[in-house]
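User
New here, explain this?
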Amino acid sequence: MLPAEALSDVTRIHDVLETVPQPMLIMAEGRVLAANRAARELLGQHILGEDIRLAIRHPAAAEQLRDPAPANPDVPVHLVGLGTRDQRWEMRIRDAGDWRVVHLTDRTESHAAERMRVNFVANASHELRTPLASILGYVETLREGAAEDPATAERFLKTVHDEAQRMQRLVDDLISLSRIEADQYSAPDMAVDLAALIDEVRRELTAGQSQRGADLVTELEALPAVRGDRAQLSQLLHNIVGNAMKYGRAGTPITIRAQPAGGMVRIAVSDHSEGIPATHIPRLTERFYRVDEGRSRVSGTGLGLAIVKHIVERHRGQLDIASTVGEGTTVTVLLPAKPAVIKW
């Protein structure tokens, strides 16, 4: 049984404890005197009055909680797998007279963000290192005498040029992604004529891709203006349609459809291709993720759909990718329409 005085004191601070959004517990003599709602939701409603080591079932936590020495609040205890297997928590223990206050802070998202940052730097470094090593190797070979053979020199210089262009595309995409992320909390508010923009992008891609340009088909209904950034929406269309041209079967149509959808405008780009297995679809917008590493390495940076995702998010829109293996892929984007201005 808990002392009556302790129960009385805990009752008086209960309302204060409930205002804390993170899980917090008060313990005395090794038992839980009080726990706020967040703690009960994480650890279970049964923890009141329970041995603290049974309430927080984690080896690292048990070791600290049974230590009678004053806890150092500046040194958190890291708990991995508390709650769910992937969750990460920081536990801090502070002495308050006869009581001990246990505070848990969820670090799952910050850990995931840090892991993404580390992976991004590693992947970007790898993607740049590969063409750079190729350039250095060919230049060294040219300096050692290969330049004296015009045919060999021309072949090596073409490879150097191609690899340099690959690096340039990657750097351009990295800069573009960085700029889009910097503006993600500032929703664009300009009126963009989407029908005209789609036609412009189609003409640009037709001129630059003679082999597949004739396969582009547009089906546009009467469209309201969308609320957006014209340059970013142009980049979005180039990336989506460009992917369809790259991976669709030659001679099959690539259809760009656009139609009103309530207060939104729906754009759908469909191709006839090998399709994408369902297990890959949730990861397609990850940076540097590739379904087929060998096929994509020659011309892609692995950032195209990541850029599309961030542009859609900045425009407060929605992105969906549907694919059937052996048939093709459809990428759908919903963008908010720009409300008409009523003039009196």
